[in-house]
Amino acid sequence: MSRFTITADDVDLAQLREDLMHPGSGGFCSFEGWVRNNNEGREVSGLEYEAYTELCMAEGERIVAEAIERYGVLAAHCLHRVGELKIGDIAVWIGACAAHRDEAFRACRYIIDEIKHRLPIWKKEHYLEGDTAWVACSHTERAHEMEPPHRHDRHEGHSPAHEHGHHGSTTVAFTPDYSRQTRLRDVGDIGQAKLSAARVLVIGAGGLGCPVISYLAGAGVGTLGVVDGDVLDASNLHRQVMYDARDVGRRKVDLAARRVAALNPTIAVQTYAEPLHAGTIADVFAHYDLVVECTDDLASRYLANDAAVLTGTPLILASVYQYEGQLQVVSSIPGEPCLRCLWPVQPAPGLAGSCVESGVLGPVPGVLGTMQAMEALKLLLGLPRANDHALQLVNLLDGSSQRLPIDAAGGCALHGGCVAVARRAIASAQGQRDIDRTFARLHDAIAAGYAIIDVRDAEEIAVQPLPVDSLCVPAALVAAGTVELIEGRVLLVCASGKRSGHAARLLRQRGVEAYSLAGGLTALSMGAET
Amino acid sequence: MTHVTLQYYAQLREQAGASSEQVSTGAGNLRELYDELRTRHGFSLPIDALKVAVNAQFSDWSRVLVEGDTVVFIPPVAGG
Questions:
Q1: In this complex, do A351 and B75 lie within 8 Å of one another by their Cβ atoms?
Q2: Which ipTM did the prediction report?
Q3: Which structural domains are found in chain A, ordered by start?
Q4: pLDDT by residue (tens digit) across A351-369?
Q5: How far apart are CA A328 and CA A294, in angstroms?
C-alpha cells in the first residue's frame, strides 16, 4: 500500500489509524495539521491547497520511507489534503507506529518537517477581508538536522565506511574561534593546523570519554572517532556530562556525535556502535594518529594496547576507582614501555573494581578524562611532556599525585619485546572470540545443545535465579581449577559476560568445549523466558 | 623491627580503611610484608594481581625492607 496519499476528499481518521495497527507496536503517534483562523496577524476564513501531484507523490513516498529507515519505525503514513479547506479541517495527517514511543514521535516530526520543506505544495489563504494570498509551505527549521544519522544495524560490524557523518557541518554556518589557544606561543596557527589535520579515536564515550571528546572537539581536532556499544543509562548521568536526562536509552555514539556537532560543527565524527574486536582493531587504528582509551573494560584496554603497539599508534590509558585514578601514556615507540610491560597479563575481571560494583564520584573520571585530553593535545601539538614513562597515580581525596617510572627493560623486553607480545596476544584474542555465543533466550541455547553453567555467586543467583535448569559453579571455583565434572558443550552465564568469558577461556585450556553467553544475562531479551 | 610508611590505593585503601599508615614490621621483604598486611586487613587481592613500589620506584617483591622505606601497593583498576 502507498505510504503517502494526496487527496481532495475528507479524511477517515479511524481508517488511517487502523491501517497502521501492528502487533509489534508499543507506541503510535499521530500528527494533525489543522487550518487555523489566522496567519501573520490576518484573520483567515479558509484556504486552498494546490499541489504538483506527480512530484508530490514521489517525494512524499520518499520522505515516509526515509523516516521509517531513519528511526526504525514499523509503519508510517502521511496524507495531505488539497483543494478548499475551512477552519478546523485537517490539512495534513501523519501517523507512525513503532516498538517504542520515542521512534514514533521522531518519525512523525521528521515527516512533517520534511513535507513542509520539500513538497511542491502551495496554499492560498482566504482572508476575512475578502482578499487572498499564496503562501509557500516551506519551513527552514528541521529538528532532526541537529541529530546524528540514525541507523538500525546495531548488530552489524562497523567498518570505517559505516556511520560516517560530518554532523552539522552542512547546516550550521559557524566559524570556530580558537584565539584563546592559538595565543599560546607553543600553539599558534601552526599548532592549530596540526590539530585540524589530526585524527583521534576515543574508545568509550562514558565518564572518561565525555571530557576527552568535549575538549578535543572544542580544540578543533579535525576528525574524532567514537567507539561505544552502550546506550545511555540514567545511572551514567552523574559523571557523563555530555548527556541529558531525556537521552536515556539512546546510543551513546549517536549522542556523542550530536554533542560534537552542537559544540563544534566543523569536526568530522565517525562512530563505531560496536566494541572493536581483535579481528578489526588494527585496521581501525590505522586510520588514526592517536587513540584515547576511556572504557571501564580491562579487556578493551589490553586489546587497545596491543593494537597500538602493533600499529605504532600512541595510546592514552586511564582508569578510575572510587576517588582515585591511574594514567599511562603508551608512546608505541620501540623500546618504550606499554601496558603489558607493567601488567603483563590481564587480571581476572573480579580483581579490578568497576564503577558498577565499587561506586565512583562523578568528578573522578572527569579529572582523569581531562588529564587524558591534556596528554592528547600535548602529543598532537608536540608540547613538552614528562621525560620518563610512568604510571601516574592520582588520589583526589588527599590531593596527592605520584609518578612511578616504568622500566621497559623489565617488561615485555624479557618476552621478545612489546611488538612480539602484542602480536601473540591479538592472535590469541582472535581465537577466543569464538568463545562468545549470543542467544535471545537461554531456552534457545538448551535447544541448540548447550548445558548451562551459572558462574555467578550464590547471592546473585538468589536475587535472579535462571529460568532454566543449570549447574551452579561460581567463577572463582572455575578459576581455582577445582571443577572436574564439567564436560560436553557448555554455555557459561554471568551477569555481564565478563566472568563467564574468563571462566570459559580457563575451561578451554582444560579441554572443555566451553562458551560464554555474550553480554551475560543483561543481554537476554527482557521477559522472554517468563 | 623495621619502620616503614605504607600507602594504599583503590581496593586496598578501601579494605585497610586508610590511604596510608606507619608500621613496624618483622617482615624481611615486600612479599612477607604484604602477607602480614593481608592477614591484618583482610586484603582480598592476591600478590600476583598487584604492583608494589618503594620510594617512588616499582620494585620486585623479593626486595629487602630498609628502615624508612615508603611502600606503595597498587591494584589494577578498571573504572571509566
A1: yes
A2: 0.85
A3: 4-146 (3.90.1170.40), 164-432 (3.40.50.720), 438-523 (3.40.250.10)
A4: 776 666 788 999 999 999 9
A5: 12
